[in-house]
Amino acid sequence: MRRSRLVPLALLLVLSLPTQAAPPRIAAPAPLDALLQRYLKLEEPRDEVERQALESRLSREGGELLATEGYFDARLNLAGASLDQLVLEVEPGPRSLVETVQLTLDGPVPEARRQALQQAWSLKAGQPFRQADWSQAKEQLLLDLLERDFPAARLTHSAAQVDADRQQVRLEVTVHSGPPYRFGELKIDGLLRYSPELVARYNTQVEPGEHYEEGRLLGLQSRLENTPYFGSVFVSLDQEALEPGPEGSLVAPVRVQLREQAPHQLGLGVGASSNTGARVELNYRSADLFRRAWQLHSGLRLEQLKQSLYADIFLPPTRDQYQHAFGVLFENSDIQNLKLQTQSLGLSRSHQRGSIDMTLSLGYIAEKQTPKDQDSRRTRALTMNGSWTWTPFRGQSDLSQGYASQIQLGGSIKPVSDQNFVRLYGRHQQAFALGPRNTLNLRAEGGIVLADSRQGIPQNFLFRAGGTGSVRGYSYQSLGVQEGETTLGGRYLLTVSGEFTHWLADSPWGIAAFVDAGNAGDDKETFKLKVGYGLGARWKSPAGPLGVDLAYGEDWHLHFALAIPF
User: Fold this and answer.
1) What is the residue-wise DSSP string for 275-319?
2) HSE of 502, CA atoms in CB hemisphere, 13 A
3) Quick one: pLDDT at residue 11?
4) Cα–Cα nearest to 329, from 350, 308, 315
5) 31 preceded by cis ω (within 30°)?
6) Which end of the chain, C or N, has fewer beta carbons within 10 A?
7) Is residue 15 pLDDT above 50, yes or no?
8) What gap in Å lies between CA 291 and CA 329, rounded to an integer?
9) Are the C-beta atoms of 364 and 382 separated by less than 8 Å?
10) What is the rounded CA–CA span in Å between residue 444 and residue 516?
11) What are the Cα distances from residue 29, in Å, to 36, 164, 173, 226, 316?
């Protein structure tokens, strides 16, 4: 009996609680509704007093927001029959347009550049007024002066006069350029181990007496940062040591602040690939070999199918930006029943011009070949080689657009070699973005060795195909000239590949489908392409896309490559 009396009492208490009000809904034309929804704080009024306070605040703050979009006569009204059904009704009114632009450039700005700056002004008469566009136009005008010739330029006057009745805005901007600047001498701080001459060799951007450009300072800074000598670099204009220059300019020294990094590095890494199996590598690098700022790259790499010991020395660039290098390599391999013992020496001279790397090299190679169940034979060659590489992909971790190409030309003659030959090789990779989440990657490579026969030519200058990076679905270097159970290199090579990758939304993972075709051989008459196809997984790692592929060609093959440094 007591319980039956408590139930109506509880219902009565629940019904007597105040109704929870809901935040107002915004009714405004797109895209203004999204703007107001993003920046206005829509509170839930509990009574009529709070409702009136909310309406006053929303009207004021909403009007200020709409004014930034050029609506200076907007009306905002909070309507609704009850507190939980409020609607913020927005009537933006007509949008104001830019009526006139009065742009004044004070200072010794050349007339041609003055006209170019006025023409480049982005918020022109007749366009809708937006606060963001107004700010961006002023910033870009000032930036154009600051980045070239006038690093002391400043904005001295800025006004936007609004005529709300006529929906017109008159803009006024005055910029004082200040005097033009020229580069002075380099002032280098932080050198302990290295000499100023080393910095000068990398300086192709800043020359004393040249007109100031901020991009040149950034270019010098980037170039020094990319060397192994310095851990941090900051290049700036020293405006506290100005001197008068020609034609009313000021000459400012360029201050280069450096922090050297440890010149010696010891590294250990492990990895695995479907081509040569598991590997472990120990490498040692020095940026100051013999205290001459020579770079030494050396290492011992042990793989299941290949073992190598190498040492390369790179000299600092010359004043005309040529880099010289020399090195030695000892390598043993046992791939497709062909054992190779190789010793090689090389000298090179390289030069980078834009995105093109050009290298000329002289090399000597001595090779011992031991095919399975056959006698060993030795070859040697002293070769001259040229390489031209186009790498617009440089520095990009996402290779979804662009291309990379390489052309090689080399050869040798008797008696410094066992055989006369000329070798030509080319490779091209092209990537296309098909929408925001799809990539098409095309690859082709081809090579030919002009010689009477392949006999006497080191395997390093002949061609084999198959494996990751070549024709998937076939074992590594399994396509070539068959002698019994051994695959040897041939004088002809051709491979092509097409790969489509779909990247999953909001994920670094992708799914790829591909078709490869190619072969290597020594007889043009019987040369036929082998085809492989399959599916793969892709991952956008910080070092670039990584992949695992399952392909079918001669048989099913899993292709991958993974390296882990310590």
Assistant:
1) TTEEEEEEEEEEEEETTTTEEEEEEEEEESSEEEEEEEEEPPP-T
2) 5
3) 39
4) 308
5) yes
6) N
7) no
8) 24
9) yes
10) 10
11) 11, 20, 32, 51, 63
